[in-house]
Write a structure and sequence with these properties.
5-stranded antiparallel beta sheet; 3 helices; hydrolase; EC 3.5.1.88; two-stranded antiparallel sheet; binds nickel (II) ion; alpha+beta; Peptide Deformylase; 7 strands; single chain
Length: 171
């Protein structure tokens, strides 16, 4: 396995709308290896989710593990959010593509998501809380959206300034 480079804001390809995964691809060892590399990259970062878009692959799949013990790796192929609750949940989100920047985002608390697992088997999850937030954040990536898009212009400017400042410190 190997660590993958992650595209960082404002890389234009983070704005790509990903195309569906062709199910035949799931039998390709290279695709399975890419999924393993995405899990490794996410765990190493560390992060709780990583969308293919972030590793410059513009197809609809993503990996997630919100558990502290990293015991629940979930791969979503062609995920679709079927239902969203009226109840909302606020979470201080971050993103491996916008490192070091965190901001409150409000999203539906509960969702129903359908997807294929890494072997092409369909599944449906009815989830709420952190996992629901994370699924929505990652599906946004597949649509070319970032969590800062959900902020007011003022808060977004503040987040981008923070990112610039952190980058200057890094050089
Ligand atoms: Ni992200």
């Amino acid at each position: 396995m190997s660590l993958l480079p992650i595209l960082e804001y404002p890389h234009p390809r983070l704005r790509t709308v990903a195309r569906p995964v062709d199910v035949d691809q799931l039998h390709d060892p290279a695709f399975q290896r890419l999924l393993d590399d995405m899990f490794e990259t996410m765990y190493e970062a560390p992060g709780i989710g990583l969308a293919a878009t972030q590793v410059d692959t513009h197809q609809r799949f993503m990996v997630i593990d919100v558990t502290e013990g990293r015991e629940q790796p979930l791969a979503f192929i062609n995920p679709v959010i079927r239902e969203r609750s009226v109840d909302l949940r606020l979470h201080q989100e971050g993103c491996l593509s916008i490192p070091g920047v965190f901001a409150d985002v409000t999203r539906p608390d509960g969702i129903v998501v359908e997807a294929l697992d890494r072997h092409g088997k369909p599944f449906e999850l009815r989830v709420d809380g952190l996992l629901a937030t994370c699924v929505q954040h990652e599906v946004d990536h597949l649509d070319g959206k970032l969590f800062i898009d959900h902020l007011s212009a003022l808060k977004r400017d503040r987040a981008i300034k923070k990112l610039d400042k952190l980058r200057k410190g890094r050089d």
